[in-house]
Amino acid sequence: MKWPTELLLIRHAESAYNRLKQAKDADPDYVRLRGLFENDRSHKDIQALARLLHARHSLGCSDRETPITPNGENQASLTGRAMRESGANCPDVIFVSPYRRTEQTLSILQEEWPDLREVKVYREERIREKDHGLALLYNDWRIYQLMHPEQGELHDLLGDYDYRYVNGENIPDVRQRNLSWITTLTREFSGKRVMAITHHLTILATRANFERLSPRQFLHLDEHDKPVNCGVARYVGSSELGHNGKLELHEYNRKYY
Questions:
Q1: 165 and which of 44, 108, 133, 183 could share a cystine (Cβ 3.0–4.6 Å)?
Q2: pLDDT per residue over 52-74, tens digit each?
Q3: Which residues contact 124 (CB under 8 A, 6 or more apart)?
């Protein structure tokens, strides 16, 4: 069989951006901006409101340097402990996105599951977060589009799947580099147990490439069954399926906390 015997995909624990988004969504001014964005983007107050919210809800660091929160530390700790106590197989190799939040998540998993410390770790750019380019200055796609109206028009024309951020990526870009990583798994890690600490869109891209999801199916999955923080997806290799075996999805979005 050309596939790994097991592939575990784990999303990073709650990040500072995840917490920032929760606070922003609860802000009455942001609720008003969302209403104006959906119904009247030409309203006289919308630009000033966007600038106000940009200043109020700024992350203050790059996407690569975004850390996890204390709550995220607890999520990762409970996940590592529960996976160890459940008798889960220790992987033969670990891939981790080279972002601060994924590396912090892995470090805490290793504290609670000491056997992971003995496993070879590869820092893998191909499973990093989607690059949002210029939009990272705003930490919010609505504010980004209001500050750059032509990008809002282009997004409306192309849609969520195909729109590529200025100096960034679109979903097909992420799927392409994910497919390259999958090829590495079949070429170099056949018969091995593999773990990857990564991001929500990478997990969706992996599912989409394995299951050959259409753009519509991808967006439906992202809207209705987005990977949760520290959620675990588990694929198991079966030599009886396909010409050279196949990875089957056995668990998705499993929470251990």
A1: 133
A2: 999 999 999 999 999 999 999 99
A3: 95, 96, 97, 98, 181, 196
